[in-house]
Amino acid sequence: MAENSEHVCGAKDSEATTEINEINGMTTEPANAEGEQSVPVMTTVERAELLLAQDEAIRERIEAGATLDEAVDPSNSEFGPMGHPEQVQMRVAKRAMMLKDGENPYPVTLDVTDTIEDVRKKYDGKLEAGQETDDIVGVAGRVLFIRNAGGLCFVQLSAGDGTKIQGMLSKKELGADSLKRFKQLVDLGDHLYLKGRVIASKTGELSIFATEWAIAAKALQPLPALHKELNEDTRTRKPYIGMIADENIRNMVRNRSKAVSSLRHTFEEHGFLEVETPMLQTIHGGAAARPFTTHMNAFDLDLYMRIAPELFLKRCLVGGIDRVFEINRDFRNEGVDATHAPEFTMVEAYEAYGNYDTIAKLTKELIQKTAMDVFGSLTVTLLDGTEYDFGGEWKQISMYDSLSEALGEQITPETSMETLAKFADKLGVERDEVENRGKLVEHLWEHFYEDKLYEPTFVRDFPVETSPLVKGHRTKPGVVEKWDLYVRGFELATGYSELNDPIVQRERFVEQAKAALAGDEEACDIDEDFLEALGVGMPPAGGMGMGIDRLLIALTGATIRETITFPLVKPLVG
Length: 574
What we know:
The protein is an alpha+beta fold. The protein has 3 domains: 45-101; 116-217, CATH 2.40.50.140; 248-394 and 455-563, BirA Bifunctional Protein, domain 2 (2-Layer Sandwich), CATH 3.30.930.10. The protein is 36% helix and 22% strand. It has helices spanning 11-19, 44-63, 68-71, 86-100, 116-123, 171-174, 176-185, 232-237, 239-245, 247-269, 310-318, 356-375, 399-407, 417-427, 437-449, 502-517, 528-537, 548-556, 560-563, and strands at 7-8, 132-149, 152-158, 164-170, 191-200, 206-217, 273-274, 280-281, 293-296, 301-305, 323-331, 343-352, 379-381, 387-389, 395-398, 457-463, 479-487, 490-497, 541-547. Strands 7-11-12-19-18-17-16-15 form an 8-stranded mixed β-sheet, with helices on both faces. Strands 2-3-4-6-5 form a 5-stranded mixed barrel. Helix 9 packs across helix 10, helix 10 (247-269) crosses helix 12 and helix 14 runs parallel beside helix 15 (437-449). The longest helix has 23 residues, at 247-269. The protein starts with 6 loop residues before the first strand and ends in an 11-residue tail after the last helix.
C-alpha cells in the first residue's frame, strides 16, 4: 500500500469500513466457496486478545526498523480474517511509528488558540484571493480531505458543527522532513492541529498557512465514503459516524438540545420547579404500559424500570410544591415503530389548582415556544420539504361525539359491550384479550381517526375505564377530563384534570389490579403508599405528559430513531 498519495475520503476507506463488521466483539463467519461458514466465531475476550496481539506484532516490526508497508500483513496470513483489515493495520503501524519516534499520537493538550468557527466569522469575505495576514492562529479539527501535491499539501479540517477550513502545508515553510512526515502519517479521520498565518489562497479559499502541525488524535478506523449517503444500519448502529458524515444528524442532536432548553425556560417562566424521581420502582404505575423488570441484589428485591414519573410528581404536589415538572427517561417493554421506542424521554408537569383546560393552554405554549426557539417560526419545514403550521387556534373534538359521527350511531359511556363488539367485528378492529367498554371505544375511535388528525387537535373526554388516574368529568358520567393532542397523525401529548380523591383512586386501582390478574399486562397495581399520600391531601391539579422524541418528530418529520441520539438496536451476532 502506498503510504500516502492524493487522499480523498472514498472507495478504499469505504471498503475497509465494510470489512470491519464486528459488533460488541462478535464477528460474522465468512463463507467459503461453497457458501459454508468456515471460521468459528470468537468470544469477545478471544477477539480482543487476537487484535491486541496483532497490534503488538505490528509495533515490534516498526521497532525493528520495518517500513509501514513491511509492518502490515495484507493477506492476514498470520492472524487470519479475524484480524484487522489492511487499512486499520496501516493506521496502527503509523501510531507505532509515532511512538517509536517519541511522538504521542494522543497528546493531552495542544496550543489551540482559536476555533475554526471563530476564524471563519472573523475573516470570511474580508480577504482577497492571495491576500495574507500576519495573524497567527492555532486550530484543530477532523481531517476530511487531503491532497498531496509535491511541495505543497492541502488539508480540510472540520469542526464538530461541520464548519470547515483549509490548511496549507509547504516544504518551504515546514521543511522537507516535516512535510514528508505529514504525508506519511496523516490519514482521513485524524484530528489534526495546525498553527500558522491566516491567508486566502490563490483561489480565494480562507486558509491556515501552517508553520506547525501535530496529530491531536490518531484515527485507527477509516471513515466511510462521505460523498455517499449512509445506509440506515450505519446511521443507527454507529451514530457517531452519522454525526461526522451527515449534517442532518448533527443538527438533530443540536435541535434536541435546544428543544429541551426551551421547555425548561418556559416552565421556569411559569414558576415550575424541576425535580428528579426514581427510575427503579417497587410498583409500576403512572401509565398503561408493560414494564421492564430488574433485580436489586442488595435488597434481594424485584424492581420495575419507570414507565412514567406521575405518581411521584403528584407526591410533590402533596408536599406543597405546587408547580412541578420532570424531563425524564422512561422504559416501556412494548413494540418498536416510527413513533415508539423502548427507552425514551418524556416531560411531565403538574400544576396545583389547574385542570385539563389550563394544562392544554400551557402545552400549546410549550410547543409553540419550542418551535420558535429551535427554528425561529411557528411554521416549520419538515425533512420531506413540506411545511407544518403550529400557529393559530388548535382544533378540539370530543372522543364520543366524533366516534358517533363516524359510526352514524350515538355512542355513549352506557353503550353496551355487545353493541361496541358488533361494530368492532364488522370493521375488523382488533380487540384486546382483556377488554372493556372503554378500551373498545378507544379502539373504534383509533380506527377512524388516529392517523388522520393532521392539524394540531385536542381529542377530549375519554372513557373512565382507560384512565385510572384522571378526575371524572364535571357533567358527563362515565367520562374523564382527559385530552390527547394529535399532530400529523400521531399522539404527541396527553393532559388531565388529576384525580385527587383517595377513595375513588383506590376503586380505580382495584379495577386495574383485577385486569392485571386477568392477564392485562399494561394494567397497574395498587400503590398503597401513593394512596396514603393522597390521603394527606393533594390539591386540585392539571397535569400533562409529552414525549421529547415525539416533539422532535412533530417539528422535523423524522422517525423516532432519528430523533434519539443513541437508539437501542438489536445486536448483530455471528
